[in-house]
Amino acid sequence: MRMPTIDYVQLDAEAVRTSIELVSTATTDDLSRPTPCRAWTLYGLLAHMATQHYGFAAASRGESDPVIWKVRDLGDDPVKAYVESAEHVLDAFAQPGVVDRTFTLAEFGPDAAFPGGQALSFHFIDYVVHSWDVAKSLGTTVTFTPATLEAAQVVAQVVPTGDVRVAPGTPFAPDVPWSGEDTLDRIVAHLGRNPAWPN
């Protein structure tokens, strides 16, 4: 029986649009708030997220200059700058044939290249988790459709655990033991966040 193809373009778009909705509620004072994402403030997290958007968008066009992945300054209006970066990657991923391209992702290594569908799955899981990060930082909650959470859980489970999680530059901290029933909580715990943050 042929398994259905997962539409990472649509799933990623939901995750990114959710992040836009959350970030758009942030005020200037909110930018100094802590986040569950390492030692980043909300500003630092948004700068990372915006940089990733531009990096993945460039990779979708066949660009491989590592300078693209240098963390960006968000200027005088960080919320607007983030939204622009998110709209930029949404447009890039909506182009015909994007899943059939090869993405060179310099942040994974100088010769790291991935099929488009796999690269989109990386971006997708990042923005499910980063949307959760932003929501926690702002003291609110985030929800996704059951289908999105099911897909995110599948992608999350592929992320290796063990010593690789403590290596320099690893994108995810060691997994956090968690026995709750909420699917999003289980996803973020597997990817190194404490669902009970900031407690």
UniProtKB/TrEMBL annotation:
**Molecular function via GO:** metal ion binding
Which lineage is the organism of this entry classified under, starting from the top rank? Bacteria, Bacillati, Actinomycetota, Actinomycetes, Propionibacteriales
Superkingdom of source: Bacteria
One of the Pfam families matching this protein, by short name? MDMPI_N
Q: What is this protein called?
A: TIGR03086 family protein
Residue stretches making up the Mycothiol-dependent maleylpyruvate isomerase metal-binding domain: 15-135
